[in-house]
Specification:
The chain is mostly helical. It has a domain at 10-118. The protein is built from eight helices and no strands. The chain has helices at residues 2-19, 25-56, 61-97, 102-117, 122-145, 157-174, 181-192, 200-205. It is flat and about 70 Å long.
């Protein structure tokens, strides 16, 4: 037992020494990026899938748990693959040119996005829409910072909020098929299911009655 313990400590010491080597930093960063992508993807998707599945999906408990596991795995895998691809391409470009320039980041992310998130499925669609909204805000702030557009005299957020909500409810009411299924489900629950009730039970306690009254 003592021999195996000494071997493990020696192996651990060697691994820690390897991690301190600067010449391996780029390759090790790619590996850790894969790890962080997988963990972060699971942390983000699992609770979201849990809530959305039990709120809006029908089926047995086994089917619901399987759906949650599949969504969590897909998000975790894709994010891990993307970080791995992005950091790998970033390191390769930097090594080839001897330095890192801003275009390297854009090109590496474009290639990673095409390869990993190019498949039009519900998971990828949600991720892309999440990023798109933040990109629009980020580009707006950058345009102001760079002087491309003047600094607003008043906070534009109330106007943005009004336009976003006005547009999304108009789409929901008259062009529902253009919205993502999960958003349709959420809005149906909020704005349509609240129009229907039969008695106090499905007015306050439940959204819909489950009996045959």
């Amino acid at each position: 037992m003592a021999g195996s313990g000494d071997s493990f400590r020696a192996l651990l010491h060697a691994a820690n020494a390897l991690l301190q080597q600067r010449r391996y930093h780029a390759a090790l960063a790619v590996i850790k990026g894969f790890r962080n992508g997988a963990v972060y993807g699971a942390k983000i998707r699992a609770p979201h899938a849990l809530v959305m599945t039990f709120l809006f999906k029908s089926g047995s408990l086994r089917e619901k748990l399987k759906s949650i596991a599949q969504a969590t795995y897909a998000h975790s895998r894709n994010l891990a693959y993307f970080v791995f691809t992005y950091k790998g391409l970033l390191a390769a470009q930097s090594r080839l040119q001897g330095k890192r320039i801003p275009f390297h980041s854009f090109l590496a992310a474009c290639i990673g996005g095409w390869l990993v998130f190019g498949d039009n499925n519900p998971i990828n669609s949600q991720i892309i829409m999440y990023l798109l909204s933040r990109i629009l805000f980020g580009l707006s702030r950058l345009a102001v910072d760079k002087g491309y557009i003047p600094q607003p005299k008043q906070d534009p957020f109330p106007l943005v909020a009004a336009l976003v909500w006005g547009t999304v409810l108009w789409l929901f009411e008259y062009h529902r098929e253009t919205l993502q299924p999960s958003l349709q489900s959420s809005m149906t629950y909020l704005y349509e299911d609240s129009e229907v009730w039969h008695d106090l039970s499905d007015f306050l306690l439940y959204n819909k009655r489950t009996d045959s009254k």
